Amino acid sequence: MTIMVPSTATAPGRQALDSALHQLGQAAEHLGLDDGLRTMLATPRRSLTVSVPVRREDGRMDVVQGFRVQHNVSRGPAKGGIRFHPSTDIHEVTALAMWMTWKCALVGIPYGGAKGGVSVDPTELTTRELERLTRRYVNEILPLIGPEKDIPAPDVGTDEQTMAWIMDTYSVNTGYSVPGVVTGKPMTLGGSLGRAGSTSRGVQIAALAALGRSPEGARVAVQGFGKVGALAAQYLADAGCRVVAVSDISGAIYSASGLDVSDVRAWVAESGGVYGYRHADALSHDELFELDVDVLVPAALEGVITAENAPRIKARLIVEGANGPTTPEADEILAANGTVIVPDILANAGGVIVSYLEWVQNMQAYSWSAAEVEMKLRDLMEGAYGEVRSLATDRALTLRQAAHVIGVGRVAEAHQMRGLYP
Ligand code: NAD
After folding, report:
1. Which is the CATH superfamily of the domain at 44-178?
2. What are phi and psi of 118, to 5 degrees?
3. Pocket test residue of 163, 231, 248, 358 for ligand 1, highest count of atoms within 8 A of CB
4. Is the pLDDT of residue 4 over 90?
């Protein structure tokens, strides 16, 4: 038996948690929250670590670590994605859960924040191994989840199929179909029109709102050509932007005259990655960050814009498709250089907004048209952007600071109104 327990010595997620705590600290200071409330907001409500045994195709059994963290449930059920990635650990999942709490409060949807993860590389598993892993992980976290308690969704390394297995595992244990236990499901199981592209649509809405000029010809670079990044590139290109560079784990590609994003997506669907795409030049991962572009969209993982590379970033605007891509040190450098950052908890909120709409439809056994979903998404995104922008202007804050002041402030207010039991 192989025990695949990641080393905690390096604790890769610690930096993400430190960033999240730093941002909370700044907002709490601005809001004048007392120490007790600050500690409560810095501490997850529930954290579960589980061992997930997986039967491999050759009969071996591997054991991987899984997590589910509910950071805060003061405003409603916990909500947050499930990530399958080799470097996922309890610190990273806690940071991601905390960001979910502020994000839901910021865009005004009645959820708390959660996140789940399994320390595994899904690309090394067969589909049947992935299904067994998913079902066993869900069994281990079963006491925490449910449509009124905690509702998972896709994140890095998981997709609609993963959500279908989760919905089925939960429903089999319950004895009847419970579509509302997860969002980001296939349409046939109660998924919502517009959910698949919702995070990317939100990134497009935020980018166009912050651009401050016509999108026609605006140069864009996207790091991470996955579920969020590929469609964000597509929607920005559809709006008239010139997407000059994109990257994924396989490599980065560049075309000064602009990439044909649909064609790159077709190449990725066929070959598995952007590497080798014929109508573009190869670029290093580092070079993509340093391109002279109008908009940079990090849409992969945390901690990629650091004090080391921030001084070389030329983009005027950064729109965070990913969660936590910018470290606090990089944030300061970029702010001093005049770079505007639309922060993750605002820029990528489109996903949880349409997840909420999917859940509302499931709870009502009703469905909305794609146009109705997009209109509600646009209303909530533009409303939140406007609130953040005007608070930032009024109080001389960065957009990240303003977004956190609003999100943290609403959660703090919910705690104060509810009082402390007993
Ligand atoms: P995904 O697994 O579909 O895509 C991730 C992409 O990043 C892949 O293309 C991968 O190859 C690429 N990548 C990984 N490491 C890279 C590197 N070093 N350089 C360049 N590319 C790299 O995941 P996703 O769902 O698109 O999530 C991406 C980010 O968006 C994450 O931070 C996630 O938390 C956030 N997010 C996702 C959603 C959602 O609805 N899926 C919602 C909100 C936020």
Report:
1. Leucine Dehydrogenase, chain A, domain 1 (3.40.50.10860)
2. -130, 130
3. 248
4. no
